[in-house]
Amino acid sequence: MRILITGGAGFVGSNIALQLRKAYPQAKITALDNLRRRGSELSLPRLKNAGIEFFHGDIRVPSDIASTGPADLIVEASAEPSVHAGYGESPAYVVHTNLVGTINALEHARKHSSQFIFLSSSRIYPIDPIRALPLSEQGTRFDFEEGVSGQGWSRNGVTEDFGLEGHRSMYGATKLASELLIEEYKQMYGLNAVVYRCGCLAGPWQMGKVDQGFVVLWASRHLYGGKLSYMGFGGKGVQVRDILHVDDLAELVEMQVGKTMTRTIYNVGGGYEGSISLLEATQLCMERGGQDLGIGSVPETRAADIPWFVTDASRIRSEMNWKPTRSIENLFDDVFAWLTDYKESLYDLLGPKS
Ligand SMILES: NC(=O)c1ccc[n+]([C@@H]2O[C@H](COP(=O)([O-])OP(=O)(O)OC[C@H]3O[C@@H](n4cnc5c(N)ncnc54)[C@H](O)[C@@H]3O)[C@@H](O)[C@H]2O)c1
User: Whose CA is nearest to atom 1 of ligand 1?
Assistant: First the structure.
């Protein structure tokens, strides 16, 4: 078995690579990454110790992918993963990496008949319809009144049937465009492909920053010090996301190996029970020994921000007989343990001056 993981030194890619190594000790596993994300280089010793080959390459360059050789399975986990990418700057990087890069990976899969697993995002769902949902502030979070629901959404989350009309950020658009091409490759070339539309993912080895990876950003600031603000929607910290522990995702990928699905697109996330607001995240951080940071408030909402997103992952749960097994509390425990154990190497990256 030969496995190629693009973005393989990144948060998701490296954790999937290590999970697949455990499941397939004899497999040749290659992690391709251009190390653009600050902190991805810290994964190189983890990969090496597990006998995973690292290829310093760029998904935008077809010959780099070709150099990794034939693959039975490709997990496409490379990306510029910030929803804020492109605002006030050229969209070239996010478009070329997230869309052209996916096409390059698909071409590699077509040539070698590789199974293809694509990490897409809940950010393909358009911004304005999400903002228009009838949310109200209930205690520490935005939520719906009991029993309220609509086309493709309920308190349990957004399903794959939510409408797609409207803008969604350059990041979301590159992911949706990639999904469309994957569907065509599947139909035209018989590719065995699946798309995971992921809500927020978190866990150890995520190099959280202000524009992406809020769980680690929150935890690291509470542990190492630094400033934080509740940004947008009045600056109260009541916005909500569901979070999936990266190990739950990696287990799903392991289950996916060699399987053919009835459909292409599946929402993947922690669901209502895995959802949290920023205020609630602050509480969990303080309970785990975090400092009281006196979090600031920025009432203005950034262009791509949404007040709420919860993933309804019923489709994949029933088809794969999979469900997350790690609670939000487990997740914060794991992140705090990692930040404590690796403080020496992480402090420059995630400390107050980062
Ligand atoms: N983390 C989340 O909450 C989340 C949620 C939904 C979807 N996703 C998707 O999951 C995938 C992995 O995200 P992540 O959280 O691990 O992000 P990450 O930034 O940690 O990992 C992405 C990796 O891709 C690499 N990369 C960037 N540009 C590249 C290029 N041109 N060529 C080769 N490598 C390149 C980066 O160096 C990085 O190591 C992405 O597709 C992302 O969109 C992530």
Answer: 201
Asked if residue 139 has pLDDT above 90, the reply is yes
What is the reported pTM? 0.98
Q: What six digits make up the tokens of 265?
A: 């697109």
CA of 10 from ligand 1 middle (Å) equals: 6
Q: How many angstroms separate the alpha carbon of residue 235 from the centre of ligand 1?
A: 28
Rg value, the chain, Cα? 19
Domain boundaries, the chain: 2-350
Spell out which residues line ligand 1, taking CB within 6 angstroms.
Answer: 7, 9-13, 33-37, 40, 58-60, 77-81, 97, 101, 119, 121, 198, 200-201
Nearest to 242 by CA among 289, 292, 211, 197: 197
Tens-place pLDDT, residues 170-186: 999 999 999 999 999 99
CA distance 317 to 245: 15
- C-alpha to C-alpha distance for 5 and 258, rounded to whole angstroms: 16
Q: What is the fold, at CATH topology level, of the domain defined by 2-350?
A: Rossmann fold (3.40.50)
DSSP β-ladder status, 275-277 and 28-33? unpaired
